[in-house]
Amino acid sequence: MRLNEVIKQVDLSKRAIKFYEEKGLLKTKRDSNGYRNYTDKDISLLKEISSYRKMGIGLSDIKKILNDKSVLKQILIEKKKEITISQNELEALEKF
């Protein structure tokens, strides 16, 4: 499947898809003419990456998740800590 077809399916920009490839999150095969050829597995992976990004997960953490799904639980714990710290900061600011 060509890049323009993939863009329609995953709702990502061409630049975002190429960026994820540059960062090593996605490895696409190329045809003999050099064009990227995306598989259904690539599309699923792009949708997964997009979902993680929408949750505010950084690329380095996404890379870890893609290699080991159990990392996701640790990231959830870290995100909860960050939210708690932010809430405490807001409460302190309100009191000030």
Q: Nutshell version of this structure?
A:
With 96 residues, this protein is mainly alpha-helical. The protein is built from five helices and two strands; from the N terminus they run ααββααα.
List the helices and strands and how they pair.
Elements: H1 3-10, H2 14-22, E1 29-30, E2 36-37, H3 40-54, H4 59-67, H5 71-95
Antiparallel strand pairs: 1-2
Structural account:
With 96 residues, the chain is mainly alpha-helical. Helix content is 69%, strand content 4%. It is built from 5 helices and 2 strands; from the N terminus they run H-H-E-E-H-H-H. It has a two-stranded antiparallel sheet with strand order 1-2. The longest helix is centred in the last third of the chain and has 25 residues. It is elongated. The chain starts with a helix and ends with a helix. The mean pLDDT is 92.
Keywords for this structure?
96 residues, mainly alpha
State the separation between the terminal residues, measured CA to CA: 57 Å
Order of strands across the biggest sheet?
1-2
Q: What portion of residues belong to β-strands?
A: under 5%
Could you name the ranges where pLDDT drops below 50 across 5 or more consecutive residues? Answer: none
Helix content: 55-70%
Global shape = elongated
Please give the largest β-sheet: 2 strands, antiparallel
Gyration radius, in Å: 18 Å
- Helix/strand-derived class? mainly alpha
Q: Helical region count?
A: 5
The sequence of SSEs as H and E is HHEEHHH
Query: How many strands?
Result: 2
Whole-number average pLDDT?
Answer: 92
